[in-house]
Amino acid sequence: MLSNQEKKRYTRHINLKEIGIEGQIKICNAKILVIGAGGLGCPALQYLTAAGIGKIGIVDFDTVDISNLQRQILFKEENIGENKAIIAAQSLQKMNSITEFEILNKKITLENAENIIEKYDIVLDCSDNFETRYVINDICVKLDKIWIFSAIQGFEGQLATLNVLLENGERSCTYRCIFPNIPNNNEIMSCVEGGILGVTAGILGTLQALEALKIILSIGEVLENRILLLNVLTLQQKIIHIKKVYHKNEKKSL
Question: Which one, of 172, 237, 181, lies nearest residue 204 by Cα?
């Protein structure tokens, strides 16, 4: 049940026939893990918190740098040098005192990922490196968890919702269906090297939050077996269909 305070707070959601009180209860009961509180994580966390997600885990062992402030909109100049997960949770708690936050000031690894991820319904990958993405993928596949991937650089972004349970009882494509093997570090230019328009991160991070809410509410169409490519300079987008080639019982090395 929703309290009178919650009904008033989420009235714009409740007034939508696709959500209503039952849908808002689903949102308030949901548990989402956000891995990375950077350019993607900040807007995703803000919209998930505002929407009323019941529990949000924030994973990030990094500290705020002045170069982050151009796109990581949860942080202020006074936060430079402080842990991102801690500062993000403090800021978000002021936005919504009802949401519960778990602060995980650590790096996701093969050794700890399963214990962290198993407690959550959906995982948002807002990280910035391939090693973390493959760890997230393999553990989410093992645990039958949905995870929402995004990557950004310059004026472009990618988005896909992975390992979704389909009507036929099978799971949709995974990250290894798109990128079977981890690239070498020198094959892909990082945002540090290539740059990033801050708004690009804001758009893609917000889309990650949108995908999560659609999954929770069972509304709309999520990006299962597809990947969205978006250019923010032209606002042109392309959706590419993905064929499933990786299955749960396959063993892959990082």
Answer: 237
